[in-house]
Amino acid sequence: MSKVAVLVAGSWGTALAAVLADNGHQVRLWTRNSEQADEINNQRTNVRFLGDVELSQGIEAVTELEAALNGAQAVIFVAPSAAMREVARAAAPYIGRDVLCIHATKGFESGTYNRMTTILAEELDRSESTLVVLSGPSHAEEVVRKQPTTVVVASAEQYHAESAQDLFINSYFRVYTNPDLIGVEVAGAIKNIIALGAGLSDGLSFGDNAKAALITRGLTEIARLGDAMGANMLTFAGLAGVGDLIVTCTSTHSRNWRAGSLLAKGLEVDEVLRQMGMVVEGIRTTRAAYELAKLYDVQMPITEQLYQVLFEGKSPKLAVEALMGRGRTHEIEEVTKAWSKHV
């Protein structure tokens, strides 16, 4: 049994805390909200994020960060991308050098466009190679109900990936390891953009043909940027790539899909976020990916059109028409060029 701290108590953080508690670990789940902590400890629910699902007695919610981290042998960072640096900086004084540090956040930092492991490495004064990312096709609503789920943990050092694997794996939560930390992080972040597009397409009633094309071409965009950033292209054919892309683009559990469908109804971004009441990482990530595409000189037409919808007031219908009206290209030639150096 290990002592594990989970930061913070959103839907995914709470679901991962439930997995850890089921595995017999002593779990402290940190939240700034004292009412939420009282609810988790006394009612055994986290209604705002996970409805009336009963949470394990093995989860203790705390509001003091030092108390959450005291004696922890592993720390799971699940803060939103916009808050990751703040949380990591606050946690750093209480985390020893031998503590296993894992993050499960899918996004880039606003302004710097850093991956989450870059932020953690800077704030915890560690090498990125000692950090682990957990990602893959996984809705919190299903995980907390113990529905079969398979994810990947990635680290440049196999020992750390296997330590994370041992921490989480059980009969309903299967965990694979992967050495390609960059690829897993890029895939997890960019798929949220494509899910926004899928929700938008469904909201416009464009049908399954359009969504299938969007998912497939979206995977190409993920791979292009990942390749430019140093990822292994084979990662995008696995759980963190096509697996996570499918689940996020086809399920009403997906916040990004729901946000896209609301945008299709003509709602402004601020109103979409207000109605959602939760973080929608794809919106922030669209701006970051748009800038990264320019930085790395890669074509990301879906991302570009969604950027114009979100931040420049373009109509969703016109964005789809712009994608359909792009110049002719050769699919096999394009795919072969991108994948040939990895297979």
Total tally of structural domains: 2
SS class: alpha/beta
**Shape-level CATH architecture of the largest domain:** 3-Layer(aba) Sandwich
Mean pLDDT: 93
Kindly state the percentage of residues in helix. 40-55%
Shape by Cα distribution: globular
Distance between the termini: 40 Å
Strand order across the largest sheet: 3-2-1-4-5-6-7-8
Order of helices and strands: EHEHHEHEHEHEHEHEHHHHHHHHH
User: Strand count, sense and closure of the main sheet?
Assistant: 8 strands, mixed
Instruction: Provide the CATH superfamily of the largest domain.
Output: NAD(P)-binding Rossmann-like Domain
Number of strands: 8
In short:
The chain is of the alpha/beta class and 343 residues long. 54% of the residues lie in helices and 11% in strands. The protein has two domains: 3-179, 3-Layer(aba) Sandwich (Rossmann fold); 182-342, Orthogonal Bundle (N-(1-d-carboxylethyl)-l-norvaline Dehydrogenase, domain 2).
